Amino acid sequence: MFADRARIYVRSGKGGDGHVSFRREKYVPNGGPDGGDGGNGGDVIFVVDEGMNTLTNYRHVTKYKAGDGEEGGKKNCHGSNGADIVLKVPPGTVVKDSETGKVILDMAYKKEPVVFLKGGRGGRGNRTYVTSTMQAPKYAQPGQPAKELTVDLELKCIADVGLVGYPSVGKSTFLARVTNARPKIAAYHFTTLVPNLGVVDLGDKNGFVIADIPGIIEGASEGTGLGLQFLRHIERTKVIIHIVDAASVDGRDPINDIHVINEELKKYNKDIENRPQVIAANKVDLLDDMGYETVIEMLKAEFPEDEGYKIFPISAVSGKGINELLWYVNDLVKQSPREIIEFEPEIDLSMQDDPELPFEVRKSDEEEGVYIVEGPRIEKMLGYTNLESEKGFDFFQKFLRDNGILAQLEELGCVDGDTVRMYFLEFDYYK
Questions:
Q1: Greatest CA separation for the chain
Q2: Residue 35 labeled ligand binder
Q3: Does the domain formed by 1-156 have CATH 3.40.50.2000?
Q4: Known binder of ligand: residue 170?
Q5: Would you say 12 is a known binding-site residue?
């Protein structure tokens, strides 16, 4: 089954905790700290696989987790790093935040693997916290937490030209004639259920990639029929070929069909209406001379060339007029920017801070005049703050003030001379 959308949960690895231990050997009764650092957590990595063309695999497995880093060990042993997880996607895949719908990553241009979620850094062991005044620290830094996110994967075909038109106007027949694609062709509506890609080869390095975009009918931009599933595939195209049934075999009005589909394209993405559009009036082999003249003149009057349209009478069955159309489209593609249309990221995950870590301020139940401040946020702060330096101590005081810790101590009744304890740190409180 073709799948061009999938929702998955991804999580990087947690960093391993630093270790607290002390050297214990014969004849060395009071060895120094030798706790090793924790390993880094694994990354979540996206990579383009040119051999893939659907997101079907991600419909069956929806949760992907990188490995956690191992805790550091004694004797200065460093914990092992967590294993990365590599997610292979087809060219043109866009990664969006599932809650906001904003683009995080577009894999259109990416030739190299992209680190999507970075694993947590491993914590430092207690051996790294030795100072001249603290010879036996009993504290190690915890590993950074994992990052997790639910994302939507969307496949947007990378093609120079988009082929649009109502069902049964001859799009599949046209595509089969001009490219190496072999779409299913039948005489009933909605036979094309997947976007078909083909290469038009005109020789001497001329040609382009064309995509048949199925299911676009009135209301497609609002979810009617199949259109909303496939409209995304036209967003990267540079030129649009709009095929209509000039002979009105099924009683369709070609002029009305063009207006309806163009309105749906405009509703979906306003930028699409500014792209060059070529109208292929198909099935003219079924018209007599008078009918041919009438239909073509009506189309030219309604969609004049000075408004960006170009009319080509064609027959996808006999091949009439197709060569002239292809060379005209080839020139339009050459005049368009050479770069693939890429969607700019709307969210930068690297700029997002880790979730705010909790902490607790409480009065000791066992000792009078003693207050305890602890929790992951306090551990993390103590892990990267050098209290022996003036700059580090200033940062420490600012941290207590900005996080409301001093205010909470006063609310609990802490007064000058009382003791405040933070893990291995203990000091007298003075306002």
A1: 111
A2: no
A3: no
A4: yes
A5: no
